[in-house]
Design brief:
Distance between the termini: 33 Å
Radius of gyration: 15 Å
Strand content: under 5%
Order of helices and strands: HHHHHHHHH
Shape: globular
């Protein structure tokens, strides 16, 4: 069950977070609208492939089956019949930054097998850049990052430090 729970978290939930934070920056309301934006679509697709790369290596999963999983998710995200609002995807902002969560976890796994998680780095940058002054959690993350910088924010919220291979690529 471990490979499949990790796949859901890293691929599906990671894509949701990426769509959510990039959509907020671009003032896009619905997931299916976000999927029509070439920049968001490319980042989400790349992020999912990076996550699958690490999962295939770690758990010896069938790569073709994982690509079908990605294709199914992308098809669902692109379907206008699902009126899924992007603001739903950005709740609990700081929890999405935890070391074994949907963005940092797959980035580290990708790096473990010599991959380059550039799309995860973009998603994390969008998450760190997002600021909702009405939400205390978002305000706290924003204030911490402004005062201390991205490197310290990654250390504080993600548990990353200079020894982690991911740290330099995310800054």
């Amino acid at each position: 069950i471990q490979p499949y729970s990790s796949r859901k978290l890293y691929v599906l939930n990671g894509a949701h977070a990426t769509i959510g934070f990039m959509s907020q920056a671009n003032k896009i309301t619905y997931v299916h609208e976000a999927m029509r934006d070439p920049d968001i679509y490319g980042t989400v697709t790349g992020q999912m492939k990076e996550a699958v790369f690490g999962l295939v290596q770690e758990f010896k999963l069938n790569a073709a089956e994982q690509q079908k999983y990605i294709d199914t998710i992308l098809s669902r995200f692109s379907n206008p019949q699902f009126q899924d609002e992007t603001n739903r995807l950005i709740r609990r902002q700081t929890s999405k930054l935890a070391r074994n969560e949907r963005l940092i976890g797959p980035a580290l796994l990708c790096l473990k097998f010599k991959g380059n998680p550039v799309n995860h780095a973009r998603a994390i940058a969008y998450l760190l850049d997002y600021h909702d002054p009405v939400t205390p959690e978002s305000q706290q993350l924003h204030d911490y990052t402004v005062v201390n910088g991205v490197a310290k924010a990654l250390n504080e919220y993600c548990g990353l430090n200079k020894q982690d291979p991911c740290d330099a690529r995310l800054i």
